[in-house]
Amino acid sequence: MNDPTAIYPGTFDPVTYGHIDVVRRAAAMFPRVTVLVARNPTKAPLFSAEERMAMVRGVFRSQRRVSVDCFDGLLVEYARAHNATVLVRGLRAVSDFEYEFQMALTNRKLARSIDTVFLVPDEKYTYLNSSIVREVARLGGDVSGFVPPAVRRRLQARVNKKGDRT
Ligand code: COA
Questions:
Q1: pLDDT digits (tens, 9 = 90+) for 98-120
Q2: Does any domain span residue 97?
Q3: Is any atom of ligand 1 closer than 6 Å to the C-beta of 125?
Q4: 80, CA 20 to 30 Å: which among 4, 13, 106, 143?
Q5: Ligand 1 mean position, distance from CA 38 (Å)
Q6: What is the b/e burial string over 48-71, where b = at least 16 CB atoms within 10 angstroms of the residue's CB?
Q7: Which of 92, 134, 152, 154 is an active site residue?
Q8: Domain CATH number, residue 74
Q9: Residue 152 pLDDT exceeds 70
């Protein structure tokens, strides 16, 4: 491999300890990892792409190998434009497999030189996703086991603000 940058794409609305675990594993394998925040308007994210990027940046501030960017459009086009040949995705459980397999093969069909590497996060995080974290926060539950303190504060502020408007 020729000093490849690995791209870890996702919506990260918000970033959780599960994502962070995957980034740390990727950073141990690749010289550079870009956490790539998809604007993803179809998911109607709670946080803007800029806010999601800022939260990820805050987490990896001290890690020189990890950078953060955002994109709109086709993932493989971003990868090509940035000379990246590796996409990283986390596989939490068998239920992730079919969709991830489909995405990996679609991306390969679109760009043969780009490969997907699957990393398995720590089993403590296999049940986590961002929707669950948002829901627990919205209902006043404690999310400190799911997200870092800075993300928890932003999440609580956002759901409280939304609650005020309803
Ligand atoms: N820990 C915690 N949660 C995790 C996780 C982990 N290790 N791995 C995945 N998740 C969560 C995510 O937070 C997300 O939660 P949510 O649905 O509650 O938001 C969910 O599991 C996975 O959602 P998914 O839709 O699979 O991925 P994503 O939203 O994170 O990212 C993109 C999907 C952006 C990578 C994909 O849609 C994409 O590439 N879009 C660009 C368009 C494109 O190129 N399309 C062709 C590719 S087929």
A1: 999 999 999 999 999 999 999 99
A2: yes
A3: yes
A4: 13
A5: 9
A6: ebebbbebbeebbeeeebbebebb
A7: 92
A8: 3.40.50.620
A9: yes
